[in-house]
Amino acid sequence: MGMHRIGRDLRTYYFDPRNRPVAGAHVGDTVVFETVDCFDGQIETERDLVDTIDMSHVNPTTGPLEVYGAVPGHVLAVKVLAIEAVGNAIAALIPGVGVLKDFAPGPFTRVCPIIAGKTVFSADTTIESRLMVGTIGTTPEERVPTGLPGDHGGNMDVPLVGVGATIYLPVFTPGALFQMGDVHSAMGDGECSVTGMECSAEVTVRIVDLVEGRFLPGPLVETADAWGIVASARVFDDAMRVAVRRAAGFLARRLALTPEDAAILLSVSCNARIAQWADANYDTVIYVEVPKHLDRKGRLRAF
Amino acid sequence: MGMHRIGRDLRTYYFDPRNRPVAGAHVGDTVVFETVDCFDGQIETERDLVDTIDMSHVNPTTGPLEVYGAVPGHVLAVKVLAIEAVGNAIAALIPGVGVLKDFAPGPFTRVCPIIAGKTVFSADTTIESRLMVGTIGTTPEERVPTGLPGDHGGNMDVPLVGVGATIYLPVFTPGALFQMGDVHSAMGDGECSVTGMECSAEVTVRIVDLVEGRFLPGPLVETADAWGIVASARVFDDAMRVAVRRAAGFLARRLALTPEDAAILLSVSCNARIAQWADANYDTVIYVEVPKHLDRKGRLRAF
Per residue in A258-278, pLDDT tens? Predict the structure, then answer.
């Protein structure tokens, strides 16, 4: 199986079907993506504030990678084998956005070392690692900025996308045009002040499958313990409705349950969680965790 | 220290300052509350549907308990020492409510045995225990039904309120008039179809403290690992704003952080989670988890 590396210079600010692939891989290949932090490397010290950087160059993703043989209607499965943070972790307050914009208006920047995998916030405060890929996706039919979430993935900030996770994504364009960036060393559910602990990284993935003949409406994430069903919308209520509805359908089909049993089982055992909700006028991403322990027969599979 | 028991016949459907206390306890006393499930015992088999029961008698709470010496402005601290489920667990679909009301309209009832602490949904599906007290609170100045959440606690459905948790609540009326009910053997974050796995129970608590001279805006829950800051509102956005703002203030005051550092630390390390969001026209309860590991000096205390 092939081994590829995509350097950090090969990054883009859009998922765009007109983007030329910067590399290509077959199913089974391993690819290392060198990613640059969501500030595109423009913030290096705590004196660098978001109002002094070029905000048209943020949330870069490395790629796109062409997956040979992928055509619209396929489902791409990619497994995260390793994430290695590079350099410091950076968090910032951006004036005018985030639920705490009046409590702490910003601009303001924190730069924190990552030591033994943990983000060191201060002498007294060390944050447990939640190393994850914030932005990951295939390219939709129309161009979208890498800062937005959608059914192609994109800027989901779903913390399940860590080492060992497999993400399933619909394919919309020939070659899938897969790209990623926006790694976090730590993040809270909701990411209420708009950033996590943002870092550059090297992310090693394996292209594990191209599935034919199955419909997938949006991102699906598998971890050791759970399935994560992801949906996004501008308004919280809409994101919840879509995510919960998809999760109920997933439960019903995989476990051959009636709608009634699926609706009840979801309510009593699955966590509907907030990936990203920074403000009422900011995109909302919801992920519903379906625990694998719910089925002793192992029927909770992607398809 | 005294030991008291409040029987399941002594239940009420309102937090009401005119309610006469059914028992009294001093700080340090232990009290067993016999609670009845949220259907008030009216559903016993899967043939009993919610449209055949008296919906004015739901979500009963046992009490109120007078806490001797409690006056408005105090903060009541109660520790959950034990929760023992009694009988089966029951979940139901209620027509017209819940995000899945079109997917699975109901009415529909499931009755599941609780075996070795786990709720047995079917031969293939056993749900891990999340034994918790759904409704717990002091009595506000004005009467409210026990089905609603608020700054007095009430029907919060916050899964952190399990064995070992301590809940802090503002005192609004003389004697605090504390009551509880609505135990769940299992529940998913969001409780998207309106019920968890509902059961009757015996809940043993200790009245651990009456704190004077401190302001608490709403419920605060301490577990072994985290603090949970709770807020509720009709609309999701409002509940999030209040919960996140309270959590940021908690972090700032306890850890002597600037607002900027508190806003960032919350965003990168604290999970804003959904206790209850069944529908857009249903009350929303949010809890923000502040992990205790954030402070190696042990300064994350209630006050």
Answer: 999 999 999 999 999 999 998
DSSP labels, B121-141: -SSS-EEPP--EEEEEE---S
Q: Strand order of the sheet with strand B126-127?
A: B114-115, B118-120, B126-127
Q: Name which of A188, A245, A273 is nearest B103 (Cβ-Cβ).
A: A245
Q: Give the distance from residue B246's alpha carbon to the nearest chain A alpha carbon, in angstroms.
A: 10
- Interface contact A186-B269, CB threshold 8 A: yes
Which amino acid is it at A272?
Answer: A
Measured between beta carbons, the chain A residues lying within 8 angstroms of B108 are 260, 264
**Contact across the interface for B264 and A190, Cβ inside 8 Å:** no
Beta bridge partners of B11: B62
**Per-residue confidence band for A282, with pLDDT thresholds at 50, 70 and 90:** confident
In chain A, residues with a C-beta closer than 8 Å to the C-beta of B293 are: 126, 128
Contact A221, A92 (CB under 8 A): no
Q: Are B181 and B196 a contacting pair, CB within 8 Å?
A: no
Query: What average pLDDT is seen over chain B?
Result: 97
pTM of the model: 0.97
User: How many residues does this entry show for chain B?
Assistant: 303
A94: tokens are 């951006």
| Mean pLDDT within B288-303 | 96
Does the pLDDT at position B56 exceed 90?
no
Residue A55 has what pLDDT? 87
What is d(CA A238, CA B237) in angstroms, rounded to the nearest whole number?
Answer: 13
For residue A250, list chain B residues with Cβ-Cβ distance below 8 A. Answer: none
Task: State the Cα torsion A47-A49-A53-A56 to the nearest 10°.
Answer: 150
pLDDT band at B165 (very low <50, low <70, confident <90, very high): very high
Pair B294, A120: CB distance under 8 Å: no
Which chain B residue's Cα is nearest to A241?
B99
Q: Distance (Å, rounded) from C-alpha B262 to C-alpha B256?
A: 9
- Asked if the Cβ–Cβ distance from A125 to B260 is below 8 Å, we say no
**Mean per-residue pLDDT, B88-111:** 96
User: Does residue A303 contact residue A214 with C-beta atoms inside 8 Å?
Assistant: yes
Q: What is the ipTM of this complex?
A: 0.97
Cα–chain center distance at A32 = 16
Q: Which residues on B lie below 8 Å from A94 (Cβ)?
A: none
- C-alpha B42/C-alpha B38 separation (Å) is 9
* Angle subtended at Cα A189 by Cα B278 and Cα B187, rounded to the nearest 5 degrees: 40
CA distances from A3 to A6, A169, B44 (A): 10, 21, 61
Quickly list DSSP for B144-166.
Answer: EETT-EETTEEE---TT-STT-E
Question: How close A100 gets to chain B, by Cα (Å)?
Answer: 7
A126 to chain B nearest CA, in Å?
6
